């Protein structure tokens, strides 16, 4: 797809005001605890766990899987017909790929592209040295600010969109930040997409639970960005999970086809709990992931050459004792590091990681597991990071307090990604000369000149003395996060939205809702 | 120093039994939740944040610091005399080093050596691809199992030595695991060294708070290992902090001289809170660290060429708002990664990191900060890791619960360090063929054959369903850690110690204690 650098919605009339002013205001209002950060441009190198020989071995094995075992496309006839025409060997729903076919098809996929926000200042790059964080995706439950665990509602959904909008280190609004189960299942995508547009101006994701819901997402995006812009630029990233092992189901293929047809991005992600959906080994899991991604990602290019597509990897393991999913453990980290290397060799943007954990509360287990995952995510060089904040309980619950704690950690990753400043000021030889042996740097000129930006400043960490901490009520970090979260939600201000667009969106939603009966399953 | 591979204590008489049998029993009894792990031999690569140009720049700047600014050696005349004779320019206590002098002296320092334990099966390698974990060092307080924060006692000291002995992922017994403030300050080192010998058979550290306490540590080690063995092998690692910026004080130099003279290892560690003891920048801090280590480490070679010495780095920052130390933030991680690179180029073993945090309780803040530090520690390729478990509250308190949580994480690092198994079993192609699209791997032959060792198994993480977790009492990880800690301490069994050695140690201690009045300051 061509990268048409065009003002979103340009040419649409009845705008209440110019986009530039709105953007500037939105930029100011977005920072919950500081100015909004742009997406990350990594200046540090990715970390590698496989050498050339290992990479070639896994690529060779994945080719064998694709050719000899094959991948199932559980779709209507269209997908299978497309594969037949492309030269694959199709037996029932099983597609066998001649060596090199998938890689050949993927040559048309962009290695980098822009994911456009309705506020152009919030648009982000996907690929290369860019890293973009997005909130947790998919939880049916929330752990709310009163410590209750309950089903999520559209109000929770709205709150997490607001928090993601306000979090300086969060670069996108995400997608299904939680499942608003109080809205009929066949209509909730309309409210979700609307909420992203209305309450945030960061880039958002589309619905993937049915082809018609993907079409609705596209239609709503067109009301915001304009028809031509959407058809020629990426305004939505869309999560297309493989049904591992080695299956793409009808729902995911249906959504992927819609998005690819309209030039929107698919994040093709094997969803792997090693030991259940893949072998118990890292190399075996990587082989299967690579085969699945090669098949699923190249499929988007059959639909529309040039459609953006990501190499996705959701990696966790199961407990071999209980079968329960585990997070933050070493083996999935090795999988993600390895998958990132395979993606770079393929020239596709890469998605993995986040702040994953199995814990039921935002305790030290949650933090250890999340930090193990998040440190890996940054160093692996992930380009798109779903579940970067708010994930609790194996993804079953979105947690307000954990969202706040996680977004603080994302800010640290952003600083880490800047690497070492080797400028003259960075070298600080003047400071070392000025201070000399036995003195201190607190008051020296270099410190005075740089103290504002010197170190990442956490809004949640308590670094005070024990005595001061006692005086302040012996609070744990989740209590401080709770307070900060309430204050953000209280002070939230929506970014401006052209009333005409708002009206058009509401009218579209009303029409679509009227056209179908409520469904809750 | 020659690596004399000699059985510790060989030739000493009056041993109650052969060392082999004792070692085997000790090995069995050591594992609190599983078999003891050997020290880590990393199969993964270290992570680099500086390129060749950056490294050369910092080395160049450090040479300027050494030559033009100089380092203060606040010692009696001996150190200054040694430097004069070596060709340095000494003005008062300030030593200026001609370019290349320190590096030339360091050519005699070993790049790898063995740190011997009284049980040879517990001896560890320091340097190269080896990583060795040690407990927290130095806290005057403990956070005990009843949740109280109080001054540490010799009983706490004993408990942490027991826990370090039982923790499968802990490779050494450490040093001042906490300050036993109920023992006179001038006698406490005797009880500390004795406790390490009596209650553990893992390698331990010596006292550095005065030259005569270092001599006592040596004397006690000789009662265990034999005179010749000690003089020719490393049986103690010893923490020699620089008094940053650019000062080595009399206490540290005194201890370092004693240990180097007896061929024992010095861990020369600039203790850096950036912004106070070093510039606010990463590159400036690295320059100062390198200069300090070059001076302090090469000094050990003036005392005894070949004495083992480590490039140490304790890196943290201060809050520029409050002046309080902060941990787990990005800037010190960059410092440690960079320092590791500088150490590798110098051919010295490297010490950094641990499980550092500022939090007052083992909450998510503690865990995030610790995990950020620990992940960096492993990937930086640290050879010796002090504070690997139990550190709380900026190092002011040793926490029982956090010790248990941390040691679980150390086990994860150990697994991570194994990297990706690319053997035929690792590739798992048979499993992928057997299972095929749409099935699962739970029962396949490959999974059955490998499930025991497939994934790191945490003894503390709760991966169960929310409902199961509720039934089990809604416990946070520190509650589970508390229970596990109590059960370890209840089931502790001391490793065997030759009664004759025990008697000799107790007699030595009694004699030394009788020779001086109690001092508490």
TrEMBL record, chains A, B:
**Single GO biological process annotation from the record:** methylation
Q: Name one Pfam family in it.
A: MTTB
From the UniProt entry, list the residue stretches annotated as the region Disordered. Answer: 1-38
Q: Which family does it belong to?
A: Belongs to the trimethylamine methyltransferase family.
Q: What is its EC number?
A: 2.1.1.-
GO molecular function annotation: methyltransferase activity
User: What is the recorded name of this protein?
Assistant: Methyltransferase
- Species of origin reads Peteryoungia algae
């Amino acid at each position: 797809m061509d990268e048409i650098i065009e003002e979103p919605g340009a040419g649409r009339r009845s705008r209440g005001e110019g986009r530039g002013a709105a953007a500037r205001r939105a930029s100011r209002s977005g920072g919950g605890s500081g100015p909004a950060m742009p997406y990350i441009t990594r200046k540090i190198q990715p970390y590698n766990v496989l050498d050339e020989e290992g990479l070639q071995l896994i690529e060779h094995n994945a080719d064998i899987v694709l050719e000899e075992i094959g991948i199932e496309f559980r779709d209507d006839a269209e997908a299978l017909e497309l594969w037949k025409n492309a030269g694959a060997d199709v037996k029932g729903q099983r597609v066998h790929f001649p060596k090199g076919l998938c890689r050949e098809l993927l040559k048309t996929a962009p290695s980098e592209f822009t994911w456009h926000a309705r506020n152009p200042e919030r648009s982000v790059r996907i690929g290369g040295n860019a890293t973009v964080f997005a909130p947790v995706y998919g939880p049916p439950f929330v752990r709310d600010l009163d410590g209750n665990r309950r089903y999520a509602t559209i109000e929770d959904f709205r709150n997490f969109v607001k928090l993601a909008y306000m979090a300086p280190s969060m670069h996108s609004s995400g997608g299904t930040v939680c499942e608003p189960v109080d809205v009929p299942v066949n209509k909730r995508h309309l409210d979700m997409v609307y909420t992203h547009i209305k309450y945030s101006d960061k880039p958002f994701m589309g619905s993937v639970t049915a082809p018609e819901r993907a079409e609705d997402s596209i239609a709503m995006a067109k009301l915001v960005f304009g028809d031509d812009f959407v058809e020629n630029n990426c305004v939505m990233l869309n999560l297309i999970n493989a049904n591992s092992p080695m299956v793409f189901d009808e729902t995911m293929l249906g959504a992927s086809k819609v998005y690819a047809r309209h030039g929107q991005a698919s994040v093709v992600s094997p969803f792997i709990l090693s030991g259940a959906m893949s072998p118990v080994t890292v190399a075996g899991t990587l082989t299967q992931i690579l085969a699945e991604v090669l098949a699923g990602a190249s499929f988007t290019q059959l639909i529309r050459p040039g459609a953006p597509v990501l190499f996705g990897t959701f990696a966790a393991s199961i407990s071999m004792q209980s079968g329960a999913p585990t997070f933050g453990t070493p083996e999935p980290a090795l999988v993600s590091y390895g998958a990132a290397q395979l993606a770079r060799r393929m020239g596709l943007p890469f998605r993995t990681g986040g702040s994953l954990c199995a814990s039921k509360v935002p305790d030290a287990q949650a933090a250890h597991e999340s930090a193990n995952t998040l440190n890996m995510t940054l160093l692996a060089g992930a380009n798109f990071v779903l579940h970067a904040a708010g994930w609790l309980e194996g993804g079953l619950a979105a947690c307000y307090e954990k969202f706040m704690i996680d977004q603080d950690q994302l800010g640290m990753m952003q600083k880490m990604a800047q690497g070492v400043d080797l400028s003259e000021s960075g070298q600080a030889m003047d400071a070392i000369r000025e201070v000399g042996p036995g003195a201190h740097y607190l008051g020296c000129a270099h410190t005075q000149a740089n103290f504002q930006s010197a170190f990442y400043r956490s809004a949640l960490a308590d670094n005070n003395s024990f005595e001061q901490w006692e005086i302040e009520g012996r609070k744990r970090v989740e209590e401080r996060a709770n307070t900060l979260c309430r204050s953000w939600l209280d002070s939230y201000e929506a970014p401006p939205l052209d009333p005409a667009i708002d009206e058009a969106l509401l009218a579209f939603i009303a029409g679509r809702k009227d056209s179908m009966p409520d469904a809750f399953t």
